[in-house]
Write a structure and sequence with these properties.
15 helices, Aspartate Aminotransferase, domain 1, Aspartate Aminotransferase, domain 2, alpha/beta, about 450 residues, 2 domains, seven-stranded mixed β-sheet, binds D-serine, four-stranded antiparallel β-sheet
Amino acid sequence: MSNSRDEYNYVLSLLEQHHKWFQENIPLIASENIPSPAVREALTTDFGNRYAEGWPGERVYAGCRFIDQVENKCIELMKRLFKAEFVDVRPISGVVANLVVYTAFTEPGDTMMALSIPCGGHITMGKKELGGTAGAVHGLIVEYLPLDYKELNIDVDKAKQRIEKLAAEGKPPKLVMFGASVFPFPHPIKELAETIRSIGGTVGYDAAHVAGLIAGGQFQDPLREGADVVSLSTHKTLFGPQHGGVLSWEKYAEKIKRATFPGMVSNHHLHAVAGVTIACAEMLEFGREYASQIVKNAKALAQALYERGFNVLAEHKGFTESHVMIVDITKYGDGGTIEETLEKANIIINRNLLPWDIKEGRHFQHPGGIRLGVSEVTRLGMKESEMVEIAEFIKRVIIDKEPLEKVRADVAEFRKDYQKVHYCFENSTEAYKYIKIR
Ligand code: DSN
């Protein structure tokens, strides 16, 4: 028989156990990262208990003196990082940021183009019948951008043909969203922007996965290459807290602001905005070095896995130019089972659909692929030689089938040297230290 004090202690103990576990595992989820101690500090502040609806200086609430100064600083730093004329830091996630874009630039019933989910597209770009945000929430008709399976990138010629065909049929795509959740190579914005504009469309770009690489001068620069609007989340390669944002040009400022508030948010998680601001200052100082190391690490991990027998896709073009790689794992099982087995050895990756999985009858619970990202291990200070060690751990689990408890113990030992957050101003508190303030 438990009482509420037991429940209270139980939850706190689970949180503490989670922190201990993450001190001992290898975190390779491509959409995750570890924020600095300063960002974690910002998240614990009273900002998280306040309301600040509206734009800084024009709030609907009193008490925003310091909140406004932080939010204005966040906008200023993001403008510098992304060389953007206009920034809205109020969307509370990447999903909300995409909804802001859809609301500002399309009407329900319009056609939008994006990659399908098996081809790397995000659930926000999904069709109504699949429950995707674009279709089910904003009422868009979603048509797919064609992916070249070998190149793991959008097929420019086929995309042009499809856009022009849709326009000829009276369904011109009002919005074409570049960007993806499996995003190893820069998308062809330059090559397609003119075609999109010629039929009256808007060029959108979902930078959720690659925002930190763009800010660090790696990957591509969507606003310079022709994007009208860029959505992002702030916690993947960009190492802030979980939040969102929209970047664009001054001429679109008013309609984006209105789509965000009163459209998509009431209050906008002010502690997270403070954390994003700190992360942006860290990115301005350390971003180039960090982003360049991410790409080196991703290539090194992909190469080391490939040399150990794993079918890492796009070998002919160096596997990846970002933080992420995709592996066809069908030789050893299905992605779901492999994910579960690796987790037992304290290696955290995620299962992922391969572009051709649905056609071959595979399902997202047991797909043919796994996805690995190196942002978090890079932030923990790992370099290329550690990527080779990680590949060896993965091989020991999947190919050699060593006892999982033995690999798990070796992983925990390996992790002992990587307990601090790098690429930040202050790191005296360990990365995953559980902080008690009660
Ligand atoms: N789509 C998720 C991922 O890439 O893990 C994030 O929203």
